[in-house]
Each structure stands twice: as structure tokens, then as C-alpha cells.
């Protein structure tokens, strides 16, 4: 929890600095790339979390991995290393993207399903979310077989759980109370 609060503080500070220098779009692209790279590379995630690797090596490595990143992005590497918080980089990247999208009025709806959404179903879900929120949203489909079927829709702080796993859990609670 403390790490998450710290990550949001770093992300807000970075967004404010980037916005003041008209670099917020470039930094957003960097943060998307960083979050994706850390998510895709287990080795990179372990490397950043490792207490054995020196912070200076982590900083130099990040600048080698992301050479085209903006000066602001390289600056956040320096700040996180100086404060011994480089392990928060992925979280900072996610928080920055979220704050940037919120600032721009873009919202991401996360739809968790047991199988990937079809194009037709994606259009229907987008239309329903727009009807409910009044905002244009981008859909992110997360596949999770453990929900068995149905879907879980999350937009901002609203969540609608129509998964079969949730319905079975409700039934289980009802029967255990009786």
C-alpha cells in the first residue's frame, strides 16, 4: 500500500513537470513502453527488484534499454534511484498512464472474460459502457479462465461482476447460511 501511494506521488510529480514542459505526451509514450517491457520481461522485473544489483547499474541499464526515452523519463530513473525506489518503476509507469488518460478525458474499461472478446462483442460492450458513463472509452480485454464464464467490467472505480464464478460464490454463501 505504501509503495502504491509513493508511486502515485512520483507519477503526479512527473506528469506536472512534463505538462509544464509540453512533454506529457512523449512521457506517456515512454511510460507505456516501460510498463509493457517490464510486464513482458520477467528478467527485467527481477533485475529491478533485486537488492543485490547496485542502483547505479540499474539506472545505467534502464538508460541503455530505453535510449530514445525523453529527458523527463531519464530524470525519473535518476530520482527513483536516488531515493532507492527504482523497484516502483513499473507502478509509477502505470499510475502515470492512468493520470494522463484521466487528464485527457480518456478512460479505459477493463473487461475480464474467460475467452477473448470477439470484434462484434467488443463493439457492443463499448456502446454499453459509453451509454453508462457518457464517455468514450478504450476497451482492454483481460482473459482469465478462473471466472469460468460471463464477464467482469471495470470502468474507473465502478465494477460490474457478471461472472459465473461470482454467481457460484453467491449461491455457496446462500446455502451455507441456510
UniProtKB/TrEMBL annotation:
Keywords: ATP synthesis, Cell membrane, CF(1), Hydrogen ion transport, Ion transport, Membrane, Transport. Its main location: membrane. Pfam families: OSCP. GO terms for cellular component: plasma membrane; proton-transporting ATP synthase complex. One of its GO terms (molecular function) is proton-transporting ATP synthase activity, rotational mechanism. It is found in: Cell membrane; Membrane. It is a peripheral membrane protein. Belongs to the ATPase delta chain family. This protein is part of the stalk that links CF(0) to CF(1). It either transmits conformational changes from CF(0) to CF(1) or is implicated in proton conduction. PANTHER family: ATP SYNTHASE DELTA CHAIN (PTHR11910). NCBIfam families: ATP_synt_delta. This is ATP synthase subunit delta. It comes from Spongiivirga citrea. The lineage of its organism: Bacteria, Pseudomonadati, Bacteroidota, Flavobacteriia, Flavobacteriales. The gene is atpH.
